[in-house]
Amino acid sequence: METPDTPENATETGTTTAGEHTGIAAQDWAHASADPQYRAAVVDLLGALAYGELAAFERLAEDAKLAPSLDDKAALAKMAAAEFQHFQRLRDRLEAIDAPPTAAMEPFAAALDEFHRQTAPSDWLEGLVKAYVGDSIASDFYREVAARLDSDTRALVLTVLDDTGHASFAVEKVRAAIEAEPRVGGRLALWARRLMGEALSQAQRVVADRDALSTMLVGGVADGFDLAEVGKMFSRITEAHTKRMAALGLAA
Description:
By secondary structure, the protein is an all-alpha fold.
C-alpha cells in the first residue's frame, strides 16, 4: 500500500519504543494469540490488509496503462510489483497462523471493491492523487491500530505499509502538472477532499462489520482506544492528510 514514510507525512503513531509497550503490545504472537478473540481480530486485520494490497497491485497495473510515457509506465509497474510482494507476505503470514488467506480476505472484498468503484479516477493525475492521498489515509489508520498489536504482527503490518516509491513519484508528477496548468489544482483539490471522506467512511465500515475487530479497537482486547483516543486518532489522520495536500501543492 503506497504511503509516504517521512515524518511530516505520517501520523505520530509508531514512535513508541519497545520498552513503553504494555499489555498485548508488549507480547509476541505466541503469547497474545492465546486469546481467541484477539486472534480473530488479527486474522480480520491481516485479511483486510491483504486484500487491500492485492487491490493496490491491480490498480497500479491499470494506472500504468494511463501513463504518459514509457518511463512512467515502468515506474508504476515496479511499484505494482512491490505491492504484490506485500500481499504475498500477508498471505504467507495468514497461512503460518493457520488462517486460510481467501477466507480471511473475503469479508472485506465487496466493501473495498465498492470503495474503488466509487473513487475510480478519470485520468492519470486523479489516479496519482488517489494512491498518494486516499491510500495514505487508510495506511495511517492501520498504523494507529498496529501500535496496539503484538510485536510480531505489529512488525509485519508496519513493513507492508512501507512506501513503495509512489509518494515521491506522485508529488513530483502532480506538482509539475499544476505548475504547467495551474487550473488543474482546483479540480485535484476537490478530488482529494472527496477521497478523504470516502476513505474515512471505508475504514469505519470495515471495522463496524467485523465484531472481533471492532471489539479490539474499542478496548475489548489489545488495549484498544477509548472514545477520547479515537478523536485524537482521527485528528492525527486529518493533520497528516493536510500535510500531504500541501506536499502536492493542493489546498486542503
